[in-house]
Amino acid sequence: MAKGVKAVGVDQQAMDHPLATVIGHHGVSASWGGEGAGLRPDIIEEYERETGRSADEDFPEWEPCHKILLSNGIMAWENVGGDIDKVTGMRVTIAGFPSRLVDVDGSMVRLVAIVEED
């Protein structure tokens, strides 16, 4: 039975923050610090100095992985951790139980892997 992809989970801080930080002058970095601000402007400067390229040109969009996944109805789980290595490479059904919160766009989720028997 074809089930398709309904969610993607990663054991890292975010789906698509290059260098584990906000590097471009857009998205939340601009709204928190004003035009041209970054949460870690020192990393933006280091990136540009080391590569000789513009961070804005190399990372033109804010959270492109989020946009691609969510626009296709696929949930994204970050910081999965735990015992994920016990089911890596296996066919499993994942059940996600989010915290019940109001007026938010994300929450902590308890993930449960249901292993399919042969």
Q: Would you kindly provide a written description of the structure presented here, covering whatever features stand out?
A:
This protein is an alpha+beta fold and 118 residues long. The chain folds into 2 domains: 1-15 and 63-118, Putative cyclase (Glucose Oxidase, domain 1), CATH 3.50.30.50; 17-62, no CATH class. Helix content is 25%, strand content 17%. It has 4 helices and 4 strands; from the N terminus they run E-H-H-H-H-E-E-E. The strands form 2 sheets. It has a two-stranded parallel sheet with strand order 1-2. The model has no long low-confidence stretch (mean pLDDT 78).
Q: How would the blueprint of this fold be written?
A:
Elements: E1 7-9, H1 27-33, H2 41-51, H3 55-58, H4 64-71, E2 75-77, E3 92-98, E4 109-115
Parallel strand pairs: 1-2
Antiparallel strand pairs: 3-4
